[in-house]
Specification:
The protein is mainly β. The protein has a single domain, classed as Beta Barrel (Porin). It has one helix and nine strands, in the order H-E-E-E-E-E-E-E-E-E. Strands 4-3-2-1-9-8-7-6-5 form a nine-stranded antiparallel β-sheet. Strand 2 and strand 3 form a beta hairpin. The longest helix has 9 residues.
Length: 123
Amino acid sequence: MGVVIAIVTAATFNLVCVGTRYSSDKFDPDASKKPVELIARVDLDQKRWCAGDCNATAPIHRVSDTEIVFDYVDTQILLKSFVVNRESGAFEQKTHTRGTKWVQIITGQCERANFSGFPKRKF
C-alpha cells in the first residue's frame, strides 16, 4: 500500500521556479530585466495545473518524458508558451504579440516542492 501512495503523490507537486524576465516593453524600460518567481501546482495524472493564487486550474497542453508544456497558444495574433524541462529543471515562458516588436521571455530553474492542492470544485 505504501508503494501505491508514493506513486500517487509523485504525480502531484508544486514547482517553484526562479528566473529572470526579459521584456522589450518600451513604455517601462525598468521592465526589461527583472527577477521573477513563479509557483505552479501540478497534477500529472489529471493533466491539470495552476499558477500563482490558483483560483482556477487549466489543462496541461502536453507531457513527455523530458518536458511539460503547460501552456501553448499559437494564433495569428499571439504566440505564448510555458515549458519546463523535466531533467534539468530549466523553464522558459514566452509571450509575443505578432506584428509588433513586443516580446517577453522568462527563463530560469524550477525545483520540486510539496503539492499545496487545487481549489475545491463547486460542482
